[in-house]
Structures are given as structure tokens and as C-alpha cells.
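Components:
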Amino acid sequence: MKHRYLPMTEQDQKEMLDVIGISAIDELFADIPEKVRFKGEYNIKPAKAESALLKELSQLAAKNADSKQYASFLGAGVYDHFKPIIVDHVISRSEFYTAYTPYQPEISQGELQAIFEFQTMICELTGMDLANSSMYDGGTALAEAGNLAAAHTRRKKLLVSEAVHPEYIDVVKVYAKGQNIEVVTVPMNDGVTDLVKLEELVDEDTAGVMVQYPNFFGQIEDLAKVEQLTHAQKSLFIVSTNPLALGVLTPPGKFGADITVGDAQVFGISEAFGGPHCGFFAVNSKLMRKVPGRLVGETTDEEGRRGYVLTLQAREQHIRRDKATSNICSNQALNALAASVAMTALGKKGVKEMATQNIVKTHYAKQSFEKAGFEVPYQGSHFNEIVVKVDGSVADANKELLEKGIIGGFDLGRVNADLKNHVLIAVTEQRTKEEIDALVQEMGALYA
Amino acid sequence: MHSCKKWGLFMHKDNQPLIFEITKEGRVGFNLPELDVPEVDLSTLLPEGMQRVEEAELPEVSELDIMRHYTALSNRNHGVDTGFYPLGSCTMKYNPKINESVARFPGFANIHPLQDEASVQGAMELMYDLQEHLIEITGMDEVTLQPAAGAHGEWTALMMIRAFHEANGDIQRTKVIVPDSAHGTNPASATVAGFETITVKSNEEGLVDLEDLRRVVGPDTAALMLTNPNTLGLFEETILELAEIIHGVGGKLYYDGANLNAVMSKARPGDMGFDCVHLNLHKTFTGPHGGGGPGSGPVGVKADLIPFLPSPVLVKEDDKYTFDYNRPQTIGRVKPFYGNFGINVRAYTYIRSMGPDGLKAVTEYAVLNANYMMRRLEGHFDLPYNRHCKHEFVLSGRRQKKLGVRTLDMAKRLLDFGYHPPTIYFPLNVEEGMMIEPTETESKETLDAFCDAMIQIAKEVEENPEIVQNAPHTTVINRLDETKAARKPVLRYIKA
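Structure:
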């Protein structure tokens, strides 16, 4: 059967075989030993024509409850945010999405400049000196930060706050194992990192201290104090952050963070069942030559025109090979572009306004829950998530909520036995007052 | 002279403004709904010192400003849709448009990874069926979709191999062997997984030197990482002997799937003796590349490595899909959530579009195209390994180098003809290497036009080397000063 992606005709094939000097394509595979040669065709589903496949897959997609149809209060690291329509129009320009890594700068100035702009925007939001061109996601970015800290300080212990996203902690542990680094979790107290415990644990063997800002429970950590305790032992201060929150929160750079990482999913990137998102990695200038991944720098051509190139590549795997401290090659370039477009569209005013709406709407939800008689155990400052204590199973309630068109919050009992019957509720700017009221009312009825 | 292509719509040679240079206070590119809950002064919600004082200097531009800016940037960028992109080992094939549509279905794009499993059964079904397809394609026993890209998959598999050896008390297995022709990610992944890298030499035929391999293996061998066909585009014919040597000393054989496009339906890693494999879904299975990512790097394993797979593992129980977190021997989690689902949706759509006959044709045409080009070009450039290649081949520019023209110059000259150059100076064991991978989606006319350009450049090297040495001549920018970029790095815009 002819396939629309394969332009080969019988005539082409004949002419090409003649030039090669063979009579059949099979001869080109004669060097595959008979014993391992695969005979016939794969036992997989037969090819489906475009229209039929579109129909099948749209039906499959329709089996899922999506946040276009449901009011989602689920966050925990992935959020339903406003995505400016222009984002998809830009990233659908196939000069961007069908290109490889910009290794030929003369014909890749578009991508290179877009990344340079991304690096700048991440620096602006985080208050850091420089940022790379992206990482897989916030979790692996944090894990790479741990490895960097260990390599830089020549120490073999990482402290990670229990109030960091539990899946991020899991990833940190696996990366650390590769480098034989010990990971010690710092307990939390009242929804934030226990600073007394941190002070006890941090010592001269500590390579880095990791906290999340706002943390997994939506609470805002006391970065000034963490910085003090961390730097007192000459450990690196590592902050995993939500870049949208930095529209209203003092940036980690102002608190002396050495490494700031996070995920730019909040800016124009779909939830997509957890990926692809867009990790970022920003550092102070001392660590410039130790940053993992690609960096774009400005330079000029021989006629003095400004242009952009991949730079400081001596850090990277394709040059350093087994001396490399990170193996990252592919990153999330297209999603970095999406995030740039969203950050550009929102701009200076919009990021602040959107962040403000998140915090104010979450505050409204918190008051509403309390008014309805729910306990909100952590009373510290929050960004767009709060923890609500409920009287019964979160999972069961979420099933009921789904029936009412609501995707409920995250069941904290799944990751922390002490937090059974606690739900993490995220309220983004997308949620209307009506939806928040409905959630509180439905939950009130369910747990009555 | 062969007509040269002009890059972009207009060859304007002025600096392209940065988005920060067209910003103007007071312009906006967004509008949010009015706040519909009572306003609260942020200073009452945030503690002292926590409220941002200096605003982030993000752009202030209108929506049209944004669209024009990025359209201008896209015009300064070459993708597969722009023109031929024979970048070796990168498999720059056509990226089908149906993939993009399917990945944007709300039921795939707008679902949350932590939703109740009952509400995302469609997504889980797709993932499971993709795994089943990849199991058949690779000949492995189980597949995880969690790794985000090829290098991430390499490292994931090596961490599993490490856990496997440790579970057997084999803690002395600290060495990973890679051929001298290997991708740079192989040794880097080995290092990041805590192994020491040992290089095994290639022989005169460009294949792994069995004698050298026998010399370097031993009780400390954890694994051999192999790309087959290798980065020269040559099939390792002694694969069974290689497998025997590694397994004989208790090591594991690892398949770097970067070149899978060369052997689909012809040979499966699982049948060749490989114990684990990573795939680059953004290469063989039309990801797309996205200007450097996102990718997706699933890992397939044989039965004895299954207990060590990253957690959770997607399983099917009766007609229900569920994530199994009860994996006592798992290496843990290599990524939050379940991998780059959006890329996996695209790969699945591609596989379902091609079917078994389609995937077989993919490999046959990819290999036919490469051999055809190799034969058309062999008289004009040195061909270090003269035998049938697989999906790619490597030429050497040493003949041209003697005339004072380097492979880099020829690559830059190709830009003037509207082509993305091949991968150059790789693999490392070929002097002045040019690694050419046409893929199956290119027509004979395209291959011929590219070969004509290459042949013309070879002539120019003999008759008029300056035109090559000074190339490119038609791009929006000339060769950039990379030394300057690295010596005094400017990595962000700073307002003048």
C-alpha cells in the first residue's frame, strides 16, 4: 500500500537500485546475521487512514475528564492556567517545531534568539544572574541541582525539605544514588520546613539545602532564614519555585539563592497528563560554568552584526563525554518557546495580575472553607494552594465531585500517612467565584 | 553557478530586535477576566519582605507585536518543513500534522496527571497500547514510558542495570564499555549513573574490535552500550559474538535506539541479545524535534530487569488500567508523573498511521535512500568504509582538507543552497567526517538535488576554494564569533 509520508515510486526504486548496483532492497540487509533477522511484519495494529484514526483517537480522548469541561481544583505541581491563544499559533510555526537543536547558527537565529529571550525572562522572574535554555521538568531540574551542588562543594549530602513536591524528592533520590550522594529529608512543622530541625541537620558535609517556594502545600517558606542556615555551612542554597508566584513574591535571587529551578508549565504549557512541561535552571554567576544543559549567548559575526550561538559547550556531554557532570542533550526547547510567548503576552503587568488573582482567589476559597466549617490546618501565607482537612475519604469525595463537573483536589494521604483525609486544593485565576462556591458547597454536603 | 537560496523572505542584514527592545510602557498583550471575588490588599496576605518590590522586566507589547516578532524569528529558522535536513543520527524525517492535532485534543492536552485513574482511562489505554507496540517493535518484555528523552532513557536503563547487579551482590561491576564511535551521551550517562567508562576500539571495518572487547571485559563489567547500526551507519555483524562476550562475563548489553530507523522490521534488539534498549520517539517515531526538545525516551527491558523498572508501572487488570506503585525493587522515579505523554501521543499516532507494512517500508526506504546517496557521492569525497550502509553513511573531507578547505566550510557552503548540513566531525573516529542521514520521507528529486550541490561544492573546492571557505554568503548572518561568545559570555539581555 502506498503511504502518504513515503514518496518512493517503483520507478525511483529501480533507478536507485541500479546506481547502487543491486537488484533488490533486501541485499542491503544481507549483513544482518540470518539468526537475528526478523522475518515478516510486526504483529501490531494495521495502518489506519487519517480520517478513521482521527475518529478513533478523538473517541479515546473523550474518555478522559479534561479541564476544558470540568472545573479543576487539582494542582500539586501541574496547573490549569490561562494559556493565551497566541501561544499555540507561535509554536505551531513549523520552522520552530520541525527544527533540531540549533547547531548551525546561521540558519537557526530564530530559535537561538527565542531561547536567549527565554533565558532573560527566567532571570527577570527569579532574580538570578543566568538561566539555561531548559530542562526536562521541575523535578529533574531539582535533581540536577543536587548533583551540581555535590560536584561544586565536593560534599556528599543533600538536605531536602519534606515540604518539597514528593515526586520531586523521589527523583532527587534516584539522581543522587547515581552519584552516591546521601539524601536526608528535613521534617516540616505546620506546613513549612522545620527550621529548628534544619539547623540541627545542616553541617559541613552538606552540599546543598533544597526548599520549595511556595512549597508543596502552598505555603510560603521563610527563605531568609533558610539562606542564613545554609550559607553558614557554605552549602549551596537551592530553591525550587513556581515562576508565576514570582509575579508577587520576592524572587529567590534576592534571598541569595545559589540555584533556582522550577517548571514553566504555568506559562502557556498544557497539563498534558504530566508532560512535556518545561524545567528551568538558573544560577548565580559563580556557577556559570557548571550549569547543565544548553546555554545561548550573544556574539557578533565578522561584519559586526549581532547574533546568537550555543555557548560554553565545554560543559556538555557531546564535548566532555565521560567527564560531563550531566548527560542532558534533548531539552524542552519548544515548551521554552511556549513559555516565552506566554510570558511575553502576559508581560510585566499580566504576570503580576495573574499571580495576584491566584493568591486572592485562593484566599477567598480558604475563607469559604472555614466559613463552611472545614479546618484549614496550615495558617501561614499561601500562594494558590491550601490544605483542607476533611472528615472522610478524599478519593471517594473526588469521585462524587466528578459527577458534578468538578475535578477535586489532591489526596494528600497518597503521599503522607499523617495527612490522611487532607486535600490539597489549588485555585488558579481560571476558577470563578461560582465554581469555588460550588466546590465548597458540594464538599460541605459530601462531608456533612 | 547553481542557484542559491535566499534565507527568510528577505535577506535583511540588520539586527533583529529583541522582544525587550520593542517593548513600550503601557502596552499589553493579554486580558484576564475581572477579579470576581473580593479584592484583598496583598500586604495583608504576604509577610513583610515576601512581597515583590521590583517588578520583573518582562515585555510590554501588543498581540500583533508578539506575532510579528515570532514570525520574524521563525523566518530566520530552518526546519524539516523548510527544506532537506540530512543531519546524521538525528532522523530528521517529516513530522506528520495529524500528530499535532491529536496531541491537542482536550482529552489528551488538558488532563491532569494526578486525576482519579477512572477519569483518565483513555490516556492510560493509549500509553498501554503504545507500550505494547514498542514491546513488539523492540522484541523486549516490558517498556516504561517515563524517561523524557534519549539520554534520560540511557541513564534510566543504566541505573536499572546497576540495581540488578547490586541485587545480585555484584557490587564490583563498576565499568561500562562504549565503542569509540558512540554518541557522547553514552559515556556521560554512564558517568551520571556512577559508572566508569571504558572505550572499546573500532576495527578497520568500522565495527567493534572483538579482540579489544575481549581484552577490556571482565568481572568488573556492568554493561556494553551499543548502537546498531553504529554511528557510521554500519550493522555490527558480529552482534551475536558481542552479546556472548558480554553475557559470558555477566554483563548486560544495552541498545542505544537512536538508529532504530535503520532496522525496523529487519532486526529487533531483543532478538540480537540486548537486555535493554532506549528509543528516541522524537526521531524514529516523528516526535517532532521542537528545536531541541521535548523528546521522549522509553526504555524496554528483558524479563530479568523488569523488577527494577521506574515506578509506577502501568498495568492492565481486567479491562482497567492502573498505575502499580508496589514495586519493591524499583530504582525509583526518574521523572515526576509518567513521561512526556504529549510526545508519546504523537508517536502512537504515527505508529497507528503506518501499521506493520508502513514501518517496514520506512526502514527499507531510509536505507535505500542512504545507499543511493552514498554511491552518488563516493567519487567526489572519501568514503572510509565502503560497504552497504544502513540509514546513514559517513564521508570524509580529508581530500578537500588537503586543498585547504575544511568540512566545516563545506557545511557552511551547503547553507547557501538551502540545505541543513549533515552532522559534522562525528563520529570521532573519522577525520573531517560528514554524517548523512536522508530518511525515508525525502523524494529522489530532493536527494538528487542535494547530491548535485555536494558535487558542485567538491568542484568549487578544487577551482574556487575561497567561495567555500568564506561561506555562507546568503544567510541573514555570517559565521559568528564563538570564541567571543564563550570568553565574555552574554547570556541575557540587559537594558542599556
